[in-house]
Structures are given as structure tokens and as C-alpha cells.
Write a structure and sequence with these properties.
Blueprint: H1 19-31, H2 35-49, E1 59-61, H3 75-83, E2 87-94, E3 99-104, E4 111-113, E5 119-121, E6 130-131, E7 138-141, E8 145-146, E9 152-153, H4 159-166, E10 172-176, E11 197-199, E12 204-206
Parallel strand pairs: 1-2, 1-7, 7-10, 10-11
Antiparallel strand pairs: 2-3, 3-6, 4-5, 8-9, 11-12
């Protein structure tokens, strides 16, 4: 188990916000975080994940963070899953089709950033075989923000909504966030997929 830390987060919620203003707000909040804060908060999130009722599952999908966007560092989570002998899947994104292709992460997997600074597995003999979306039992979902109902705001490209729609109804969807929730995201649409949980550095929120 990792060393527990108790971070301090400044958060000022509003009753209702639109996705556009939420994206601006949380990009600014992330940019205000230091590298040390990001590491401390990410470590605390990994500690909280230990308390989730997910450890009988086998196939876990994990996003690799975009450092330039100051996303949650999932390295601690990867170590945790690896230590529990879980099958870890990561993705490669096609920006023309907005589709994600998933691969098992192995000792032989090579990772390279794409043109959008997203770390991805390299195609070819270094990458393991493709894993279908409907095989994922737990998906850790990146986000900019989320509300009290489990609705999330991403970067607006729709990759994860498409991916999660391909998963089964039993797939457990877990957001990871440095911050607490907003009250309500005003402009939710039919293609938005709700989270089952969100993990912050201080607590787990179940929806």
C-alpha cells in the first residue's frame, strides 16, 4: 500500500454550469497545480482506489496521462494493478474515426506520444493483441470535471463516450479527479455516459 497523503484542494462550486465554462474553469485549476501537488494527489487517488469493490475483476482499462494537460498520473495505479496480477489494457486513438483500439500492456509494450501528446502503444510486434471493448470489466476514465450525478466533462472529442458505449452494462466506470464535483452540468446529451464512481485524493464518490 502506498503512503497516504492528505492534499488540500481549493474548490468553489456553482449550482449549474455549461460544459464550455466548466472546461475553462478546470483547465485553469489544473494549470495552477505544481508538479509536486500532481504527484501527491495522484498517489492519494491510487490509495483510495484500493477501497473500491473491484478487485475480483480481471480486465482493467487505464488511460495514460497527458502530462502537458496535467492529468492524473496513473503510474501509481498501474503499479497497483500489476501487483495484483490484473490484465491491464491501454488504447490507441484514431482522430478520424474517434475510435479507440485497446491493447494489453505487457513488459514488451513500447509507448510513444502521438501528435496530441497522448502516450500510446506502438503498433507492430512490440504491441500485444487487440482486446475488444466489451471485455473491459473496469475502466478508469479521464475527465476535466463531473457533477453530483456522475456526468463527466472531457475534452469534447467523444472518444470515451464512444468507447464506453461499446462496453457492457456491467462495466464499472471510474472517474479520476483532483477536484470535487460540480452540482449540475447543464448541457448533458443522450450520448454522454455516466460514471459509477469518481475517485478524488480525499474520498470515493459513488453515483
Amino acid at each position: 500500500m502506498f503512503t497516504k497523503v492528505m492534499p488540500f484542494i481549493i474548490f468553489q462550486p456553482k449550482l449549474a454550469m455549461f460544459k464550455k465554462e466548466i472546461r475553462l474553469k478546470y483547465k485553469e485549476l489544473r494549470n495552477s497545480l505544481s508538479e509536486n501537488q500532481i504527484e501527491e494527489f495522484s498517489l492519494a487517488i491510487a490509495n483510495e482506489v484500493l477501497s473500491l469493490p473491484i478487485w475480483e475483476k480481471t480486465y482493467f482499462h487505464v488511460f495514460l496521462p497527458i502530462e502537458e494537460q496535467k492529468e492524473v498520473n496513473t503510474e501509481y495505479l498501474l503499479h497497483l494493478l500489476s501487483g495484483k496480477d490484473k490484465e491491464i489494457c491501454i488504447s490507441k486513438s484514431d482522430f478520424e474515426t474517434r475510435k479507440m483500439t485497446h491493447f494489453l500492456l505487457t513488459d514488451n509494450t513500447k509507448i510513444k506520444k502521438n501528435e496530441y501528446n497522448i502516450p500510446e502503444p506502438v503498433n507492430g510486434p512490440e504491441a500485444s493483441g487487440e482486446v475488444p471493448s466489451n471485455k473491459m470489466e473496469v475502466v478508469f476514465v479521464p475527465l476535466l470535471a463531473y457533477d453530483k450525478n456522475g456526468n463527466r466533462v472531457g475534452y469534447g472529442k467523444g472518444f470515451y463516450d464512444k468507447f464506453l458505449a461499446e462496453c457492457t452494462q456491467n462495466t464499472i466506470k471510474i472517474g479520476l479527479s483532483f477536484f470535487e464535483h460540480e452540482e449540475v452540468i447543464s448541457d448533458i446529451n443522450a450520448t454522454d455516459i455516466q460514471l459509477n464512481y469518481c475517485v478524488t485524493p480525499n474520498r470515493i464518490i459513488k453515483f
